[in-house]
């Protein structure tokens, strides 16, 4: 078994690191935290488009390597970009009509437009209950009514994919951001992922033409959730790498009692354990990608195992990184504290750790 990256994957990794290290990209990354989030996200997407990144398909083995590279540099950028190009974009690519793909995907992958997925609702697990957002027939299409919870990219998006209950079951409506009856709430303040733009939304009689709807079937919401989970698992891997690297550097540079703190066994052991978590997370993420590409029957359960394991590992690694940083880590503005705040999101978003475990157990019950 060969665990090495292919030449193509190595080249892509290097190209992405180079693209994000130039001055323009650094300025855009800084703007992600400020008011210029939309131009910054579009600018960064455009830069990464040069290396083919946003257009990578879900079945491409280079995808996880490329995602890991971007996620470990900036988890907020990664999630903003991926919810646009890969969650919203993948939904259109895999489930949409030819006309929908043509109308939406080229601008999305070139960094000229941003997409968002509005699926989750308060008090509704869409895996078990129908969406309370309804799409009812009206002259000229379907009328959307309902409320959606926090939605990544909603304040920036050109297009939103709104999951609703239609006359024939679950469907997804592709809604332009300026559609009458689509009302966005204010940008929400989040605990972590400072560069992510998130808002709730209300659909108040928003008319969607029939050709901009995608019938989902009963399994549709779970399929879309799996798109999210793939992205969230790699985001967690990126967060873990970032926290680990910050702690390792600090432990080599910072001295106590006349020697770098890495020389103390307690700190060295912590770093050893952190690296073990990150490396095993990486292997699981790659294996999930490999099984998905191979169409293996264990692909879905391995993807869930990866989501749960990597999200929980990221929390552990980020917490130990803070411990190694000491007081300096508790002052805002360093990778360890950012990772500590970022990591919390990844185990509760998409399929939560609890629900993930239950689904894995259900699969085991079915199989053995
Ligand atoms: C910042 C942010 C951005 C988001 N962006 C998006 C987005 O872009 N698009 C989108 O569609 N959604 C988005 N969400 C929603 C997110 O995916 C949901 O918050 C997540 O799916 C969890 O659902 P919930 O908040 O309703 O929690 P709940 O489902 O109410 O869960 C609450 C707790 O109860 C546990 N629980 C729930 N049901 C069970 C059960 N059956 N058995 C055991 N434990 C259970 C959960 O594990 C969790 O610990 C976002 C959320 C946040 C906070």
TrEMBL record:
The Swiss-Prot or TrEMBL record lists the needed cofactor(s) as: FAD
Q: Which residues form a coiled coil?
A: none
Q: Where is the Acyl-CoA dehydrogenase/oxidase C-terminal domain?
A: 231-364
One term of GO molecular function: acyl-CoA dehydrogenase activity
Which segment of the chain is annotated as a signal peptide? Answer: none
**Domain named Acyl-CoA oxidase/dehydrogenase middle: residues:** 116-206
Which keywords does the record carry?
Answer: FAD, Flavoprotein, Oxidoreductase
Fetch the CDD domains from UniProt: ACAD
Q: Which Pfam families match?
A: Acyl-CoA_dh_1 (PF00441), Acyl-CoA_dh_M (PF02770)
Claim: Disulfide bond is one of the keywords in the record: no
Q: Which family does it belong to?
A: Belongs to the acyl-CoA dehydrogenase family.
Q: Describe the subunit structure.
A: Homotetramer.
The record's listing under PANTHER family reads:
ACYL-COA DEHYDROGENASE, ISOVALERYL-COA DEHYDROGENASE, MITOCHONDRIAL-RELATED
Q: What is this protein's record name?
A: Acyl-CoA dehydrogenase domain protein
Query: Can you name the source organism?
Result: Desulfarculus baarsii (strain ATCC 33931 / DSM 2075 / LMG 7858 / VKM B-1802 / 2st14)
